[in-house]
Amino acid sequence: MDRFPTITLDTTLAELYQKNLPNGQRPRIAIIPCGWTSGVDLGPDMPRNKKLIFQDPVTMAAYRDASQFQTEDASREMQLKFLAMVSQRDALGAGDMGVVIFEFDSKEQNRSASREEVGRTIAQLAPHQQPQLLLCKNPDGLKECLRKGNIDLVLPKLPLDCLEQVSLTCSVDASYYLHSKTGLTESGLPIPKSTIIAPPAFSDTPEWREKAKSHVISQIAAQTPPFVLKTNQSGGGGGVFIVRDQSAKDSTLEDFSSHIIPNLLASVTTSNAYLAPANLVIQEFIPTTTGNWGLTFFLGASGTCTFLQAPTQQLSSDGSSWLGNRLSFPDRDRLERKLSPIMHEIGAWLHKHGYYGPAGADVVETESGELLVVDVNSRIPGAWTISLMQGFFERERGFHEACSQNVTVKMPREEFVGMEKLKRFFEEGRAVIVSWYWDEVRKVSYGTLFVAGEGEKEMEEVLEECMKFAEVEEL
């Protein structure tokens, strides 16, 4: 076992739930922290969402060409990202509660290796903050898995089709609405000027799809650049189109006409039409912002909000994928004062629709000083776990700056952390592995690192050394 510092989190999701439930209520809550997609199946027993449609980057890419995900390598890469990387990272911040981990591999040898990887990640935590791992082979076995774990309620990272069979902290329909751009546009929160484009009333006929396509395309064509176009369940950078000029508008119209709108409309059925999965939102383009934060907080069952952190977000160069977060711990108190009013507004909206639990929001500040919400996440946000580590990094070790980074590495965990140039960073707590999976089949590791330093310069130096042996991974 690695001899690295034991992590004691500032608090955990389990502790926050226990402090913020109504008197006398102590349900056993479990999280399902995996990612998912509507574009392609994640395996023979891991079907894509067909009712609760969302437009993550994989789904959007599949709309253009689904064949690129039908190779064995592509399928396995998606499984590792959605089911291993994300699950481990969020499990680390869960605390003493149930965490459902889907075991996606059909071979027992590989499943055993997966359990070992999860175990090594969790073992870094102080014993009293380690979660109860509930290993589940596929969604069909979820109900039995929860029964064996004595779980009363479930909090999923995303609304999944399979969840209609279990008891949730927030209903599937409400969760889907709160994740939608339609919901945000109707929320009354301070957001960029936004307009919903809705297809005509649903009818399951080819004529309806042709009429709806013509209506939606004409609405987009009537817009004057610059503007932002979003699908109703855009996420992780997928489904967001920044239309800066006429050339970009022409290209966007071509994409929407040729494959995006036809696929969106084909996903509308009698079972999900009431959820408005094919809605679009036209949003005002904000050319310059003076601040961009991933507000991270906990919403109690009574509607109270607990501020955690507000890191800046790191996106890929084209804005299509989330790469990680950056935190300056000394700035926390100032950001809490600045963002608390808008946090409480967001919390009130979520609470109105029956949600309580971990939450996040993308908040920007305009040149005039106005704070605007551009996205709300009624789930465990990407910055959750790093937001709980100020004590570990700053108070215990004097590291004032920290960041997260998704990586691929062509070696197993033990080789990476044992490298002569890197081992000291892990021993000193300057670098922490928060998710890791060594794929024996493809001879590559997928992981997430937290890196810290006394200042930004020292943090960057540690990250630079780590990245000499790794590549940036988009998620």
Proportion of beta-strand residues? 15-25%
**What is the β-strand count?**
18
- Biggest sheet, open or closed, and with what strands and sense? 6 strands, antiparallel
Structural class: alpha+beta
Provide structural commentary.
- By secondary structure, this protein is of the alpha+beta class.
- The protein is 33% helix and 24% strand.
- Strands 11, 12, 15, 16, 17 and 18 form a 6-stranded antiparallel sheet that branches.
- A hairpin with a 2-residue loop joins β6 (227-235) and β7 (238-243).
- α8 runs antiparallel to α9.
- The longest helix is centred in the middle third of the chain and has 21 residues, at 246-266.
- The mean pLDDT is 93.
Keywords for this structure?
475 residues; alpha+beta; 4-stranded parallel beta sheet; 24% strand
Topology:
Blueprint: H1 13-19, E1 29-32, H2 57-64, H3 72-91, E2 98-102, H4 108-122, E3 132-136, H5 142-148, E4 153-156, H6 172-179, H7 181-185, E5 194-197, H8 206-221, E6 227-235, E7 238-243, H9 246-266, E8 280-284, E9 289-299, E10 305-309, E11 312-315, E12 322-328, H10 332-352, E13 357-366, E14 371-377, H11 390-395, E15 401-409, H12 413-417, H13 423-427, E16 431-439, E17 444-453, H14 456-467, E18 471-472
Parallel strand pairs: 1-2, 1-4, 2-3
Antiparallel strand pairs: 5-8, 6-7, 6-8, 9-10, 9-13, 11-12, 12-15, 13-14, 15-17, 15-18, 16-17
Helix pairs in contact: 8-9
